[in-house]
Design a protein that fits this description.
binds arginine, elongated, Fumarase C, Chain B, domain 1, mainly alpha
Amino acid sequence: MQLWNKGFEPDKMIESFTVGLDRELDLRLARYDVQGSMAHIRMLESIGLLEKSELDQLLPALQEIADSIERGEFVIEDGVEDVHSQVEFLLTAKLGDIGKKIHSGRSRNDQVLVDLKLFFRDELRRIADGVERLFNRLQSLSEEHRDKLMPGYTHLQVAMPSSFGLWFGAYAESLTDDMQMVVAAYNIANQNPLGSAAGYGSSFPLDREMTTELLGFANPHYNVVAAQMSRGKTERAVASAIAAVASTLGHLAMDVCMWMCNNFGFVKFPDELTTGSSIMPHKKNPDVFEIMRGKCNRLQSLPNELTILTANLPLGYNRDLQLMKDIVFPATTQLIECLDMADFMLAHIEVKEGILDDPRYDYIFTVEDVNRLVLQGVPFRDAYRQVGLSVQDGTYRPTREVHHTHLGSIGNPANGLIAEKMHGLLAQLK
Ligand code: ARG
């Protein structure tokens, strides 16, 4: 039976089409639904819409449901529309009329909103934890390999000397930019929609400051229509944060695939972290990083998928909004898996030393040699031409000395400053 039953049963076809997969996705909201209900009924009691004795029965009953959720025993039964209905049915089955009182001044529209906000806060914190672990790994690899040179490329042509210190450190710093997006999404999620009811508020004197405080939100969504509008806005912010991290991670995965290619051979992994071929007995393939690249590419389509789903929806609640769960819920899990896998793999990465000693990289030193002439007083354009002509006529011989200040002995000069920046951002999520 539906919460909205008023004397007729909807057709079975209607039920499976409108609920579908949502029941399973809603399980991830269950603990937050109970948390939201606890705050709501405390507030109802404070404004006289529930008796103290009723609250004293409802809270332990909700706690029992919360415990069953943590034990993994909570299910949304067949024929029950969603998590919100299941919790209310359980309460009513246990406490009768008292259970039926908890929905005063509330709609499933603000109920699902508050569940989602609490859920996204936690998911963003978990994403931030994964980013932090990978960041720390990259920074320590950057320090460990700061002096090991590797080629830098532009247009995929050998360009200038780079180093493993720079390469690892670049991805660490890039993650600080992505963390800005995670923090922004967190701040957007961290606002209380409860009390907006169906999207236009309630005539009861709901104490929205009280639920804001009980649920640990930074502030309420003050305008009840804006609260309802945040369904979609929050998801798009989360999706942008996910896409930002995924773009960094996908790029890193691509580099590793390339550096693992036999024609480069810059990095390798222990045998047990590679995969094989059913026909070619010698293969040690980078499937992990290919899957990571593919998953991260797909994750970058998230903001697009949400835009296509929600662009130009009429103001107020529309059921289309439910479908955002299909898009965003699996994505947070996938991103966290990719972050954890990247950290696991990089813990075992082996990097090649002395790459630039190979004559195939001789031309990588031309800019160094131009700069050396400049330091001796030759105008840059003349020095450039002199070295260029020697490359053309085959007489160029590299001096192989690299003295960029950002390479060699100091690797990435700013690792400490970058770490401070990351820690400042992480502190905003505590
Ligand atoms: N499953 C619904 C959702 O995610 C819950 C809200 C239902 N509200 C409604 N007016 N039908 O949006």
